[in-house]
Amino acid sequence: MDIRNKANKIRLLNLKTPQMRAFHLSWLAFHICFFGWFGIAPLMAVVRDDLGLTKTQIGNTIIASVTITIIVRLLIGILCDRIGPRKAYTWLLCLGSIPVMGIGLADSFETFLLARLAIGAIGASFVITQYHTSIMFAPNVVGTANATSAGWGNLGGGTTQILMPLIFSGVMMLGVNEAFGWRLAMVVPGIVLFLTGLAYYFLAQDAPDGNFDDLRARGELPPAKGEHGMKENLTAAVKDIRVWALFIVYAACFGVELTINNIAAIYFFDNFDLTLATAGMIAGLFGLMNIFARTLGGIFSDLFARNGGLKGRVRWLFIAMLCEGIALMFFSQMHILALAIGIMLVFSLFVQMAEGATFGIVPFVNKKALGAVAGIVGAGGNAGAVAAGFLFRSETLTYQQGLFFLGVAVIIASLCALLVRFSPETEAEEDAAYQDAVGDQPSAALSLR
Questions:
Q1: How far, in Å, CA of 170 to CA of 189, rounded?
Q2: Separation of alpha carbons 155 and 280, rounded Å
Q3: pTM (2 decimals)?
Q4: Contact by Cβ (8 Å): 257, 352
Q5: Would you say residue 449 lies in a domain?
Q6: Residues 330-345 pLDDT 10s
């Protein structure tokens, strides 16, 4: 896909350009998605008592919340190639708002499980966010753009942990009981999701020079590929070992983050004898690191690329993954609250930098099948969350033990980063594109103007 007029600088306060509108709308939409996707997580202690859920059943709902996302992420990337990120995001947000509000109708484990399964589709929003920024920004800043948009979107995991207990408390002030309170609280993120979907349709555009339909009408973009073309793109991505290496890597970073988002509040609530609001606040710190941590991962990816090219991006990804695994193992052994919080923040820093580093590489793997590659790698995050979910559904395995084993798995997965290699021709081509995007007057990737 040959997209022209990509931005070579991120001007945060400039909303006049289509590139920056796409940047801000994409991270905001992904951020809002977390309110629907994980809005119920900080309220699970209340839901557990209301529906009489066991630890195994809670684990099953955690798995359900991320399982369906694997399939939807695979499809949504191809859909972006076909109809554009603007329409794809609008449909996902508006349709996704329905099960978010509908979860309040659950009256048993089975109906609650089905609701969380349906809500999981919203997690595909990440792929659209990364797709949209990938086609809007030039090689010298695409790593930073991808990491920042995804990081500020993932920040929703932290704000959700903090705000949902407050929304729940506000609902309780209306005089309702807890059993009805958590159901009513989930209506709020559902409404916000629907309104965000409408905003995306009217305020965003697919590419710097217009929407995909307009570009195709002017002959500036190839016609939308039919079923055969979509299969070709997917096949090319599936046959590339680098895509699956990044799939595993992303499973071990974003998959871990999703898992922590699901269990952090109840983990601190049960193990440190805290109130629901306090546990949610502490759990929220993990997600709040996204305000800068994932951006750092992308910035370092672009910096490593300045001197080391695509090989430099790969080396940085390996370093970030290795440090993530070590920090997670240490976090699993903490029994003093202050130390647990401190190590959690260090672990959070590296897991999110690893995510930014991963999607600092994705745009260069196969540009003709960008949607398919982004979809498969993005699905890896949810596959990792599903696999990790089985560690935390066992009645015999403690959360501490599960986290330790997860840390070991991350260290092993870091080796997969070294399987991502590029041909000398691709290295030379991308190095030239990088230097062309930087120009004669290199400037900071991020600026306020």
A1: 14
A2: 14
A3: 0.80
A4: yes
A5: no
A6: 998 888 899 999 999 9
Look at the alpha carbons of 149, 152, 155, 157 in this order and tell me if their dihedral is positive or negative. Answer: negative
pLDDT for 74 beyond 90 = no
Q: Is residue 3 part of a domain?
A: no
pLDDT > 50? residue 138: yes
Residue 149: how many CA atoms within 13 Å on its side-chain side?
33
200 within 8 A of 29, measured Cβ to Cβ: yes
DSSP-derived letter for residue 420 is: -
Residues 6+ apart with CB under 8 A from 221: 1, 2, 207, 212, 215
- Total domain count for the chain? 1
Domain of 298, CATH number, reads 1.20.1250.20
pLDDT in the model for residue 2: 67
Examine residue 6 and state whether it is found in any structural domain, yes or no: no
Which one, of 87, 93, 84, 92, lies nearest residue 202 by Cα? 87
Residue 84 falls inside a structural domain: yes
pLDDT of residue 226: 60
Closest CA to 297 of 103, 152, 198, 98: 152
Q: Domain range spanning residue 273?
A: 13-439
